[in-house]
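ASSEMBLY PREDICTION REQUEST
Request ID: AP-0331
Submitted by: J.K., bench scientist
Number of chains: two
Total residues: 1021
Priority: normal
Notes: Please return the full assembly, not individual chains.
Input sequences:
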Amino acid sequence: MTAFPWLSLLTALPLVGALVLLAFGGLGKLFVRFSALAFSFAALVLTLFLWHNFDSASGSLQFQERISWIPSLSVEYRVAIDGLGLLMLLLTSIVVPIAIIASCRIQERVPLYYSLVLILQACLFGTFTSLNFFHWFIFWELSLIPAFFLIRLWGGPRRTSAATQFLVYTMVGSVAMLLSFLAIFLATHKFDFIDLAAMARNGQLMPAVIDKLDWRRFSPGHLALIVFSGALLGFAVKVPLFPFHTWLPSAYSEAPTGTTILLTGAMSKMGVYGFLRILLPIFGAQMQVVLTPLLWLAVATIVFSAYAALAQKDLKRIFAYSSINHLGYCLLAIFALAKFTGVDTFLTTQKYAAMNGVFLQMFNHGLTAATLFWFVAMLEKRSGGLRGLDDFGGLRKVAPVFSGLMGIALFSSLGLPGLNGFIGEFLIFKGSFPLVTWATSLAVIGLLMTAIFVLGILQRVFSGPLNRRWASLPDLTVGERIVLAPAIGLMFVLGLYPQLVLGVVNNTVIQLVQQIKF
Amino acid sequence: MLAWTIYISFLGAAGVLLLPRGSVASARILALVTAVAGFGIAFIYFLQHRTGAMLTIVRIPWVPTLGIEYHLAADGISLTLILLTGIIAITGILFSWNIEERANEFFAFYLLLIGAVYGVFLSYDLFLLFVFYEIVIIPKYFLIAIWGSTRREYGAMKLALYSFVGSAMVLIGLIAAYVVAGAKTTSLSQLAQFPFSPHFQIYAFPLVFVGFAILAGMWPLHTWAPTGHVAAPTAASMLLAGVVMKLGAYGCLRVAMVLFPLGLGPWGVHVLGLGSWRDVFALLAVIGIIYGALVALVQKDFKFVIGYSSVSHMGFVLLGLMTLNQIGISGAVLQMFSHGILAGLLFAVVGRMVYARTHTRDLAALNAMNLHKVIPFAAVTFIIAGMASMGLPGFSGFVAELMVLIGVWRAYPLLALCVGFGLVVGVVYIWRAMQKAFFIGAGVVPAPPNPPLPPIAFPERLGATILIAASVLIGLYPQVLLNVIVPALNSPLFDGLRKGSWQ
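STATUS: Completed
Returned structure:
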């Protein structure tokens, strides 16, 4: 505990950076790129400082700041992090420098580009630290605006429709979520996530909502489900959950690759974070009521997206679908957590495993997907923008280091033991299997499909006869190897020693699981 | 002291007229000084009286035989709207810096309108309120008819006729109340305490409410608003959408609902599922929100998009009033403020920054110009104003709509879902207009404006900054205004409403 507002400082830092870039953008592109990088590294250092000072033995909310803000609406400024928030902050701080480095192909309006990236980072920090709906929603919604313009102004040929689709889909979800939270506020006069979760645990929340809402046309159970479905829609679009995912492939593939890194590495975690922090603790009971359909949707997300990835020809679209697939595992585990609420020791252990898996999977997917898109960015730089599956072939002969390192990232995405992707998926499957056996079994199909398309990429891009066109494709430069090394190294470290993350988050996991009561 | 907001505006109007013809610069500066002084007075009063309670400023007999008094007073609701008027007055003049044609008369009419608006918000005597309310119509008509653009005579005449019809309805209702109460007084607080029979109120309430609601742009009597806004010169559109529409909503709350609270009660029968005037007007408000948004979605003229968006946003005000709970009505008052600021800003961008430079408002023509590269300041301002207008959190519109929606959940859950749909359409139409007006579409042949557009001038930058700052301030710290609005709603004036059907 500290009185110093570390978390507010962390959120403000990229905003200051954005203003600096806008104000001094005239000093040249090089200056802008370096100062953007400097600000993102400053944020990384600050996050590592928080990581270091975080009391992992308690696992509860720390670095708390509470200030009364709008008493008439019982809004207070409340920020704090537990293991979940901390992990997300760290992920964001790692992904943003990668995105900034990978954006070196951007030549137009460079100061604006980087300041939007930094604004987006501030919104992410805000989302992961806010505990009051009011300002959490400010960050949640405002993050759309920089993302929209990053796609709209620097994207590919079909950027207009991709950006608009992205914005409208997410807005529909946000409006539905807003309506739900207003109904809850009407009943409880509370916007605080932690208080609302406590009310839900005591079984007071939904009776209060049903009583106050006075909508007698519906039975209490149905009314609770209506309120739940609004909130669900908001997060389901963001993650995304099938069938609300259709905005994602075009947004990811049309966005400039640096932005895609940011979208998939950090922004997609906002949805999963919302499921863990908000949906599961507050609406656990409703989730349990509609568990079977939700599990079907999670399985559909996993299987269909992997199948769709198999059919794609564009590397970015493949990784976009693969992103949906990986986050689908998180949703599967989260829904599984809502299955039982008893005190059965065996099941509780499985729930710890599943939630630990979700945490790891979020972090690992962020790291791996960001790195994969980074490789795509480097490939585009060499090929002049080409990134089709069939445009290459035999690259390992001319660019062995590139092929080898990208291969590692691909295997991490596939979940090869020893690399970071494995442990998260393993814990998810281990934990979910006893809880929801049929759904977990079906989800295995997704793993197989992923293996097929990953091997397909390896074969068609890196192996086989060398495409003559790329005979002089340069391999990774020393500089690129140096900046890539930490990311690849982290994949091995987390794969071999996941305790690095688990040790910090484990107590938070235990608390969160124990708080799922209704 | 607050009464001087009225006098100083009228004096300023006279002063501008007395200046020699052709002294455009001094007319502008005098007008600006007057507007700043008016706002300054209001702001100082606001700092001194932050309780929101009703305080009488002036009270002297006027026509004693009829019980008419010259009675000015202010509570938190008046004060909120006075501050809004002050801000819009200042920025409206900043955005009229380019007016050269008959500038003296322009600013004289402008200040006359401002003074009368201050008068309406401060009047506590119904006769006096009505006098100021009528004065507003005259400068409004001339501002559009002389300095307007597209179909200005039509727009001005339509606006004037609608206003007169509304005033006539209000007048009939007020005279009836005056006679029924014994023809002794026109004081609002005394008439509010008179126990009008429920039967009388059921008839008188809709008459007065609709009379005022016409000016608030209630569907289906809104049609004056888009044409009027489009025809008006920029400063007049800002005033029309920014404060004149608020006069209507203010009248609905301050006069119709306060005098005839029982008029909101149930009829005893249900017609088409509607059981009271309250249900009827809530439904009309929601139709206005959705209809205004949908029509804005298909407009080809940039200014019509904003014109219809005003109809949509004023629907939130009327809906908030009809929730009849404290949070909903507070939200409605906050939305009046917020919409005033944002509509002013949007009309400033469309009318002054874009139309006055490109001389076209056709979205297809603007689309080819790729304006975000030519006048980036206008693009950024419109994006920020659009974000605020579509109810993105962090801006004033969000807090207001949030409070209205909480009230609506309480009163009409089904309508809350309909409003949610309206909000989504609100996002789409603003975003569509933004993309069409400032960003070149795929496959469109670029046609850069020729000759090159003049750069955005300092007064425009200043005006836009003031309005954006006001919106962000209220969005992040709405307590500033809620501190005065909420106590005002708890004052004895609203007793009847609270006892009658308050939830």
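REVIEWER COMMENTS: The beta strands of chain B are 55-63, 68-74, 266-271, 274-276.
SIGN-OFF: pending second reviewer
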